[in-house]
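Purpose: get a first structural picture of the assembly so the mutagenesis plan has something to point at.
Setup: two entries, given in the order below. No constraints added.
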Amino acid sequence: MKKRLNGILTLFLVFMVQLTFAQQLTVTGTVADVNGVPLPGVNVIIDGTNRGTQTDFDGNYSIAASTGETIVFSYVGYVTGRMNVGSNPTINVTLSEDAAQLDEVIIVGYGTATKQSFAGTATTIAAENLAVKSVSNLSQALAGEVAGVNVINGSGQPGTASTIRIRGFGSVNGNRDPLYVVDGVPFSGSINSINPADIKTTTVLKDATATAIYGSRGANGVILITTKKGVAGENYIEVDVRTGVNDQVIDRYDVVTSPEEYIAYVWEGAYNRGVINPDGNIADPINFANTQLFSDNYVPAGYNMWDVANGGELINPETRMVRDGVSRIYTPQKYVDAAFDAAIRTEANVRFGGGNEKTTYFTSIGYLNDNGYALNTGYDRYTARLNVTSQVKDWLKVGTNIGYAYSERLNNGQTVGSENLFEFADKMAPIFPVFLRDDEGQLVPDPIFGGNQYDYGTDSGFRARPNANNLNPIGSALYDLDTRNRHELNGNFSLDFTLTDNLTFETSFGAQYWNQARKDFRNPFYGGGRSTGGDLSATDTEFYTINALQLLRYKNQFGDHSIEALAAHESNEYSFSFANQYKGLAVSPDVYELNNFVENITPPSGYSEGRTLESYFGQINYNFLDTYFLTGSVRRDGSSRFVNEKWGTFGSVGAAWVVTNEDFLANNNVFSFLKFKASYGITGDEAGVGFYSGYDTFNLGILGGGISISARDNGNPNLTWETSNMYQAGVEFSLGQFLDASVDYYVKDTDNLIFDRRVGPSQGIAIITVNDGELRNAGLEFNLTGHLVNTADFSLDLSINGEVLSNEIITMPLEPSTQEPRILDTSNSPFAYSKGSSIYDFYMREWAGVDPANGAPLWYQYFDDANANGIKDNDETGILSLTPYLSDNPDANVGRTVTDTYAEATDKYVGKSAIPDVRGGMRLGGTFKNFNFSTQVIYSIGGYAMDYQYAELMSDRFGAAGNNFHKDIANRWQFPGDITDVPRLADGIDQNSTSGSTRFLTKTDYLALNNVLIGYTISGDALGNSIDNLNIFVSGDNLYVKTARDGFLPNTSESGNSGRRLYAPLTTVTAGVRVKF
Amino acid sequence: MKNIFKITGVASLLLFGVSCSEDFLEEKPSEFLTTDQIADAAEKNPAVVRGTLTGIYALMVETGTGGTGGHDDFGHKGYDIFGDMLSGDMALSVSTYGWYRASITEFQAPLDFTALDNYQVWRYYYRIIRSSNTVIAALGGNDALPELEENRFILGQAKAIRAHSYFYLTQYFAKSFDPSEEILPIYDDLEDQNGPKVATSEIYALMESDLNSAISLLDGFNRTQKNEIDISVAKGILAYVYGARGDKWQEVYDLTNDAKAGYSIITGDGVVGGFNDVNDPSWMWGVDITSDLSLALVSWWGQVDRFTYSYAWAGDAKAIDEDLYDAIPDNDLRKAQFRAPTDNYADLMPLNKFYSPERVIGGQNPVTTDYVFMRVEEMYLLNAEAAANLGRDADAIISLKALLNERLDDVSYLDALAGQALKDEIYLQTRIELWGEGKSYLAMKRNKATIVRGPNHLSFVGVPIPYNDERLTFEIPESEIQNNPFISTQNN
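Result (structure tokens, whole complex):
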């Protein structure tokens, strides 16, 4: 591996040395509208070539051209201009508005297309819409930008990437991640390594015509990222600096904060145990609660912060509240206060660009210091990029583009377990202090780190803490360390040979590499590291991908017909290696290197894994009169993941008709542009199975001094490609100059689904991964942009996008023991799969509220009411699971009753789904004189999710003092006759009161204020000649979220269900300045 | 364009330089190995063949083999704790973390098939059965008689492990021995798909045939490690199987007599010696736990031993049932195995029975103290039980005395016992001698006992519960009911 890497680096250098900067004629000029207002972002292309550029902020451009060539100037909403290159190197152009012209060049798979001609759906996101957001990587910035693209921001930990879903849920158990392609190379590195400030355009490909050219990997959509390039003739320096704060502004769960309120709940839990008296041993519930309250099985006496001796003196059994006159010996500090605080975010980028007609360059450096609001969390990153293109010879163009990033991520206090700042902030009961108290309630000095000792429960030597004993995330966030330092490279080298006027041969070699050193250190004095004398887990991981592409492209025009065709071969190799050492007994508590730890705790481990892909593909695009467009592609892929059937064939066909180019619409007053398009294609996916899922595998170990080989996973050698058939029809239109719109409808049928089929575990295995079953996703997507105001001083645009999505299982996988399609699969609880359901339909027990007599939780039990008397008689069968029962007994007369036994309640489809009716984003933006402003909102309506965290906060499953409660616990049942939906406190007796049922099914509707920006631009004239322009701005991200319940953030997980340990997304407010010289 | 040939030459070079060789699409793992990789390795390294069997023993002590991430999911010894707690002899005397509390000590899992503890037991033992079937299939199947002696020993062990797992399933999932009750699906072939429950008699027939076959296959096997099943262990397991039937006491008597040969009873200070070393001459079957196994927090020692960095120290105290403790005479060496009660967290914990040798409270991390599966004392006790059930009280007393002579100064009181009183004494001695070793639950079922918890339990103190109570056997887990189309009902 090392050797291979050296090879790559050598290649980097060789290419760099070979670049030469030749001199040639450069055409420069300014593009403006009829009012003389410069037009930024105009596409400037030499006709019939791939050479192109864009105008800058001031409408200036610079491009290499030869005499006799034609320069084409195109810009959305303007008539395309054409100018012949003569001897004068300055060509200024005025474009007139005409929404009917849509010659904007868009980047698509393995080439470019014009917006007019493209038969698929490719949405390009304006760089300025992404640039306003204070994010560390592109994935987070995509939220709300594109219809059908769902961004799941699963963690606020600085330096984490968001999960992206394009067009629903393409697979049941397989991969749903889109493919990233950076400057033409499939990208498997970390999206964090690409500084968003270096990105010029981002294009999302959604339909099969757009993605099938990526064959094996296009089924879940493709995100094409193009980094910035230099522009001939315009040498510039651009600096932007922004700084601000990250903080927790979005509300957390509304939990109990008063120790008196909480301790009364503990007392009541113990009291109710006495009343329920499950084993008949408690004679007097009040006496039981009074004596047990401050005991080892409830709240150990040392946590009694009041000036009373026992539960009887503390709690008034009539009111079940703390008695008047009781006062505290001390007031415990809360974990939430110790864990979170506003933190600084600073970002600075410098970019240089320029070149001449033969050679252009772009280079940048960037620095990001992004501190999280949680104690000792943050992300530091340094980035650099160099992008050079040179027409070395008439027949050879050389390009090289290298990005480097070094990052340090600090993840303290986020152990996957209970020792977690976020778990403690919500779930640690308010009676338990952050700092240790001795038996007199006094703070205990810390002889090692100074200050006072943190309370670790038993480990602190005074008493066990019934809530997350032996753990203190404040202590571990301060004294332990969890860092990831990463070097990351991504690069692309290309050679384009012009063989004839019509034929080019393009070859590129792309590579991504990273190397990460993770250090996980635990201090020897407090917490888990005490038992090992301080320990260090050092994990080194290394990753590379190499992608090689050889492509032959043919372009020609025959009268009104033009044609472009390509044929190519591509290979891709992914490799990952892992090595871990875990040692204990630290000599110095401050040195985080292995030699400082002198005892091996576990044997070192290491391995490498990888996969290879090989592909052959071709594409033909045909254009007649710029009105009729046809496209077709075919691709054959082989993957090492599959054992017996490695190869799959994919492809697509598409057509577009630009109706406004027809004579009969030539002078209509309604449509300035109208295009219909349709496509069909087959795409595939292989990433949903493991690298070695085709094989039975065995773990290796040692036992009794000898080799032990034990069963690990059962493989399936017949696993092969999951394939999707996608049909799409769409329309794009513009109404005058006021509205641009596009609407797409698609149906995507995925079959040979990669499906984790559950097996009755008595077979000795629990899951077999198979290709079986068929899933349909269908959706309607819309993008509307209204140009509400458009004057010289004031412009205002309003964009709304959204998706309406449906999902249905068409065919269930086969059940091998019956040879019939399986009726129901409940492996993805709380959802279940069956024919006709979606993969996100809830299948669970129905909550029936609380028994007013005793406060016990109740559920609905369905039964076969054979005698139709509406009552479950003793001889009538209770139904455990409704769907299979009705399948076996289609004529059953199903009745419903109520049970207090969870195991008797019936699992069934409850008629709710996690899939929302509609979701998307809205943006209002514009300019007023020198001000620019923008605000973005994202929304979702109509779905449901399980609020598991709320369930935990409403539960006493760990006993009466097990964890903190949500304030809604005040609504609990207390006395016979109480009508409420919250069961009694029962000291863990009602274990199932928070088990899966409709009780915690919650609407996922949300409205989030995602981004607000206000900027002011000072033109170069006002600043003297040395500065071209200066923009100052203030922006805010993630400012407000409205959901069904404070703390419940359904947009942080794919299903919407809430999970533990959520680092709720940061709210960021920054101010910045951007200067261009 | 004169350069065109040169260009295409360069292009071809680039094209073929990166094009793919025949095996470009073949990738093999190194974190773990595939069947083919193991077969290749076995050709060069004969130790690999034995390794596939050793792997089953490794599964017996690995964490997560019950298919959950629970901290009570650590292989066979984990279910020993379930059994000890259900039988009431092991009390959860302080509960801080909640492990075992509601699910086992308050019997919620045995009453609720959705509770994961049911799944854990079921998943684990059937996982071992499948692994055994894999090894048996590789050696030619159930009826094979491998030519190589080494392979005969491997086959014998695999069959014995399979029977051992079925035995625990019969105990945990059926209330009592009823030959006609359909209780468990049966798999004796790797290719078997999910199937229906079969009669108890069929399960017992497989266990008995497996163990008898193992006893014959293991003839002449001199094991090098005590984690391996040799002929004495196979006989011990078969004695338990016959004992559970209740109608084959002569066989139990003979098998236990045979099995105990070559081992010696723990004596003197050994009784409070820690029960942590597989080399103890009384241990018939156990596992040498080394740091290579990476057992720590989640382990039997973690749950039971106060001197390990884990739950027993940190807040979940496991103690002997107070009534059982009171039943141990003061002059019995075993009384000192438990901490005398003084109103302390550690009251009645087995501080001197099971401990890591350093004896630092909350100290041991990782775990290197060993796991015991079978001790020779069990053979003496089972032998006595068999004799008593055969009506041969004198023989029973001889066996019992052989053990108790090493525990008490004076065992003459045994001579006065006969009939049921003698059986009761043997049962009591079994509970005392084997406390915390997972055997009390089996003895409860053999003796058809009614259990009553002492006052140091957190719940159900003083409530009589018969051995065949619903609360004392696990439920067939929800996952089996949902995913095996042939099973839709619980056992009796």
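Chain B has a mean pLDDT of 93.
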